[in-house]
Design the sequence.
């Protein structure tokens, strides 16, 4: 609950700052954000002091001490404060500088928290700064001007260095589930793949750069080193699966591109890429199988990816299925099979289309050959036959999507294929295989459902994903909950992958719908209503669309039902039980037909009840992604969304704190507070148990200490205070300096390029394009070594560019001004700033801007202080 409260508060703060609300003066806004920062840091100090008295609290739940959560929120506020300063003073600073200062100012709190929760935020901020910096200038120069490849290699170096530091310092921070190294490995591999993608344009010009071959050698060395480190030195099955996936994808893509250039035959290139990808997949599987056999501990649930579900059963509602996993080693590498199968399947489809083969013929042939191979080949090679059957069935599914085949109405072949996929689900019991079969079967059923749904006759159902979210999706989620919570142990183990598919399909549909469409008619008809009022409006009876009303109830009540069952099984006290249910019910009521939060909450509650860490992580990540996308929805004003998010965050945080303080001596709750007696969790449960906060998973890479020793607590608190002082000092010094420029600087006016205001406006800021030199001044910015420009006024008092200067010098004539400018990587000129921020909803007012009003100091630093209309009146 505290984590969700912190997330909502952080989202609300960022949204409030982005709204650029002018209801308060600039000093009030800056002081308000600084006050929020100070309050958050004080809370962190209090929690850190309590950890001194109760050392078990210092390690926290899942490696997140309570004061680390407060520092996480404070770190988010740092970014908001820096953004507010740039927004208020229209500095035009490059975005990368904001994120770079953000990362620097977080360092004291990063050291104090020593929690993966804060470290992950810092890594995201730092990588964002590097990416934005690479948009301005290249840090590594490669021959022939490959800027994209050099940028990708820069990211590889940065994340590889951070990975090495994380592994060397693993005993100095809490990361029980190795989130930090796994995330850094993923970032490094993505950047490595980007080095290959960067050469596509070069290859398309029919030229082979020798650097490409040398790059492939470097990549091979890096990946081989990764395999060695995480096989021998830091055994980690999940990272090994990441490396295996990368090997298959990179090798196949490299062969596809290079062979296409040499052979000039796309058919041959696809065949070679398919063979290389298949050989790579088989080699990785064989090697990982040997690792599994040589190290029985490789089946440990703490290092396994998504395939290790723990289904309900017994009094505690948990089932340990790790013994079953040893009979099928491929259960440990679902990522490898999912991505590799997808890559090979796409290559196969491309080859079929290039050879002009009918999909039905190719599909039938794959099914026949696959069935023969499955029953004829040995047990170890059955995966080949099963994969061919799956590929053939997918080809037939593509054909059936055309709605009428084999002379039969559409539902019959579609439903028949759905039944066939469920038979395949039982044929080969590997999680990746079962997951794909279940997903396709559910998609076919949903397609048939929607074709015969009465909802398609309504106005709101013009969007297919919206109809899916309101009709089949609630049914799928209810079925998944039934499988995981109500079925006997044996059935729950058998159909846990089906439950995953039933949950992931609505979640994926929600994300696709958010990115592809607005939230629908209800939100588009906001008409100025407050967001909370509109959110509660959907519960009014009688409902216009009863089926959609029912789906909203399912989304809202499913987390409540699961929480109730979980609390009953764990014998949670009634007081705690009622609080949890009321909180979940309240969240379901206010989010309503925006189902992202409800789906995330359901995944979190199920993941906690089943001791299923992967499901819990997916639920948390889905809520974060939904809140990030919610920021960009234009149906509501940013200020309204900020109040909506912060209000929920404050209420949840107050409830969580009161609940925690009142029940500190009680049993563990869904929130994860400390239990002192009467353990409710099975002693045989995985170490993800939240009963004992000092428990660390085996091999997690954390130190053996329980929190921070008391003698170090003073240093931790000093670091927290140091971070606060540094942020406040930097912010206020910057404010004083900017105010001095506004007060004492020389005023000058520059014209804006005449651009259609409709293309000039972008949300809550205006893109500024200042007048460039005329034809007689075309070479004024031609010298790339110059960084200052002199401007002189014309008869109307509008300043024109006259000459550039290599260094700051006195103006050539009285009345002229000298201003520092910056040159972008694309050769463009950034004069002071390229945007003007204003309160959301005032775009039409500032669309009449024709001039920019500036103030410049003696050192050439200028600030944009306002926009002027055609008569030079301040807007």
Sequence:
């Amino acid at each position: 609950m505290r984590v969700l409260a912190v997330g909502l508060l952080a989202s609300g703060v960022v949204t409030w700052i982005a709204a650029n609300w002018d209801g308060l003066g600039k000093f009030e806004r800056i002081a308000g954000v600084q006050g929020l920062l100070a309050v958050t840091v004080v809370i962190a100090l209090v929690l850190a002091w309590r950890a001194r008295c109760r050392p078990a609290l210092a390690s926290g739940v899942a490696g997140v001490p309570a004061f680390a959560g407060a520092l996480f929120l404070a770190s988010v506020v740092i970014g908001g404060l820096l953004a507010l300063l740039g927004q208020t003073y229209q500095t035009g600073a490059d975005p990368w500088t904001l994120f770079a200062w953000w990362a620097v100012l977080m360092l004291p709190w990063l050291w104090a928290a020593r929690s993966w929760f804060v470290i992950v935020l810092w890594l995201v901020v730092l990588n964002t700064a590097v990416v934005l910096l690479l948009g301005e200038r290249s840090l590594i120069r490669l021959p022939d001007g490959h800027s994209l490849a050099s940028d990708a290699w820069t990211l590889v170096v940065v994340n590889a260095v951070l990975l090495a530091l994380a592994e060397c310092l693993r005993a100095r921070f809490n990361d029980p589930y190795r989130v930090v190294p796994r995330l850094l490995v993923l970032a490094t591999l993505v950047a490595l793949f980007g080095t290959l993608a960067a050469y596509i344009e070069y290859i398309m010009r029919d030229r082979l750069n020798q650097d490409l071959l040398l790059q492939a050698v470097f990549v091979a060395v890096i990946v081989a080193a990764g395999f060695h480190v995480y096989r021998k030195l830091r055994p980690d099955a999940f990272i090994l699966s990441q490396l295996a996936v990368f090997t298959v994808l990179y090798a196949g893509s490299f062969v596809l591109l290079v062979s296409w250039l040499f052979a000039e035959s796309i058919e041959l290139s696809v065949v070679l890429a398919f063979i290389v990808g298949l050989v790579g997949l088989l080699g990785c599987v064989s090697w990982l199988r040997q690792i599994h056999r040589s190290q029985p501990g490789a089946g440990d649930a703490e290092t396994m990816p998504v395939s290790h579900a723990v289904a309900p059963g017994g009094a505690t509602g948990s089932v340990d299925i790790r013994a079953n996993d040893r009979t099928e080693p491929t259960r440990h590498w679902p990522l490898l099979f999912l991505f590799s199968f997808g890559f090979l399947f796409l290559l196969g489809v491309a080859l079929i289309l290039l050879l002009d083969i009918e999909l039905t013929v190719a599909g039938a042939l794959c099914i026949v050959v696959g069935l023969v191979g499955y029953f004829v080949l040995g047990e170890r090679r059955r995966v080949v036959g099963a994969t061919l059957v799956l590929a053939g069935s997918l080809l037939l599914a593509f054909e059936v999507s055309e709605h009428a085949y084999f002379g039969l109405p559409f539902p019959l072949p579609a439903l028949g294929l759905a039944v066939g996929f469920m038979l395949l689900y039982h044929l080969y019991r590997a999680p990746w295989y079962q997951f794909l079969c279940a997903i396709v079967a559910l998609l076919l059923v949903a397609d048939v459902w929607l074709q015969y749904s009465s909802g398609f006759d309504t106005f709101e159902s013009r969007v297919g994903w919206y109809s899916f979210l309101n009709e089949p999706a609630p049914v799928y989620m209810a079925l998944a909950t039934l499988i995981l919570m109500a079925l006997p142990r044996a059935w729950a183990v058998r159909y846990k992958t089906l439950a995953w598919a039933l949950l992931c399909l609505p979640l994926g549909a929600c994300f696709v719908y958010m990115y592809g469409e607005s939230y629908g008619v209800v939100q588009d008809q906001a008409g100025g209503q407050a967001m909370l009022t509109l959110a509660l409006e959907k519960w009014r009876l009688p409902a216009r669309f009863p089926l959609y009303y029912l789906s909203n109830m399912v989304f809202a009540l499913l987390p409540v039902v699961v929480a109730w069952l979980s609390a009953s099984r764990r014998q949670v006290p009634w007081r705690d039980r009622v609080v949890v249910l009321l909180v979940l019910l309240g969240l379901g009521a206010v989010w309503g037909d925006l189902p992202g939060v409800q789906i995330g909450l359901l995944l979190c509650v199920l993941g906690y009840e089943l001791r299923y860490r992967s499901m819990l992580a997916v639920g948390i990540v889905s809520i974060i992604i939904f809140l990030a996308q919610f920021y960009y929805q234009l149906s509501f004003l940013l200020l309204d969304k900020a109040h909506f998010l912060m209000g929920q965050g404050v209420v949840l945080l107050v409830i969580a704190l009161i609940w925690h303080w009142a029940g500190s001596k009680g049993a563990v709750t869904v929130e994860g507070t400390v239990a002192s007696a009467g353990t409710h969790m099975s002693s045989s449960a995985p170490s993800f148990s939240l009963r004992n906060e000092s428990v660390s998973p085996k091999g997690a890479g954390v130190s053996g200490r329980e929190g921070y020793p008391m003698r170090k607590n003073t240093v931790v608190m000093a670091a927290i205070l140091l971070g606060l002082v540094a942020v406040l000092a930097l912010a206020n010094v910057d404010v004083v300096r900017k105010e001095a420029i506004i007060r004492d600087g020389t005023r000058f006016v520059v014209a804006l390029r005449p651009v259609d205001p409709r293309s000039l406006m972008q949300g809550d800021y205006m893109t500024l394009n200042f007048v460039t030199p005329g034809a007689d001044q075309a070479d004024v910015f031609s010298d790339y070594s110059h960084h200052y420009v002199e401007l002189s006024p014309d008869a109307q008092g509008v300043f024109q560019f006259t000459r550039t200067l290599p260094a700051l010098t006195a103006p050539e004539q009285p009345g002229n001004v000298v201003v520092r400018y910056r040159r972008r990587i694309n050769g463009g000129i950034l004069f002071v700033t390229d945007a003007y921020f204003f309160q959301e909803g005032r775009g039409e007012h500032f669309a009449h801007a024709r001039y920019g009003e500036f103030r410049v100091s003696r050192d050439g630093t200028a600030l944009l202080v306002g926009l002027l209309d055609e008569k030079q009146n301040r807007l």
Summary: Residues 457-636 form one domain. Residues 32 and 767 are 28 Å apart (CA to CA). The chain has 32 helices and eleven strands.
